[in-house]
Amino acid sequence: MLPNRMQLNIETEEQLKRLKGYTSITPNVAARLAFFRSIETDFLYEPDDVKLDGSLVLDKVTWLGETALVTELLLQLRYPDYDQRLLVKAWAAHVNDGISALRTHRNLRSLAGAL
Fold first, then answer.
1. Is residue 91 a contact partner of residue 6, using CB atoms and an 8 Å limit?
2. How far is Cα 61 from Cα 81, in angstroms, rounded to an integer?
3. Radius of gyration (Cα) for the chain, nearest Å?
4. CA 69 – CA 85 distance, rounded (Å)
5. In terms of Cα–Cα distance, which of 7, 38, 86, 105 is closest to 113?
6. For the domain bounded by 5-45+55-114, which CATH number is listed?
7. Per-domain residue ranges of the chain
8. Contact at 8 Å (CB) between 12 and 99?
9. What percent of the chain has pLDDT over 70?
10. Rounded Cα–Cα distance for residues 105 and 102 (Å)
11. Which of 4, 40, 60, 63 has the most crowded Cβ, counting Cβ within 10 A?
């Protein structure tokens, strides 16, 4: 369902990189945490012209890891009428939404306590 190569927008990517600097959690793992955090809050993506212009282009397996099947199923359930292009944008929007709750943590202990 999701393509093999995916990317985020530049702002989200920068926030993931800053979080890595503070906590040592890699951007792909932080993106997974952010996605599921956003799903828990009932965020709903509305199609718009979001530019996925980040320089960090990773394959789906790297971005999603062992959560790939669950992530794709959740996206499919929440957005049944979306095509592949819109599903990628929805995934990126959820990561962007979820990272807002995680980006303020300045160390791993603080982040782990919030999860």
1. yes
2. 24
3. 13
4. 18
5. 105
6. 1.10.1220.160
7. 5-45+55-114
8. yes
9. 89
10. 6
11. 63
- The residue type found at 94 is H
Give the amino acid at 62: T
8 A C-beta contact, residue 71 and residue 35: yes
Residue with tokens 């959820």: 94
Mean pLDDT, to the nearest integer, of 94-115?
A: 75
Token pair in block for residue 43: 């965020």
Task: Please identify which residue in the block is written with the tokens 């959560």.
Answer: 67
CB 98 within 8 A of CB 34: yes
pLDDT digits (tens, 9 = 90+) for 62-85: 899 999 999 999 999 999 999 999
C-beta of residue 8 within 8 angstroms of C-beta of residue 95: yes
**Tokens representing 77?**
């359930």
Buried b (16+ CB within 10 A) or exposed e, 64-96: beeeeeebbebbeebbeebeeeebbbbbbbbbb
What was the pLDDT predicted at 75?
96
Residue 70 identity:
V
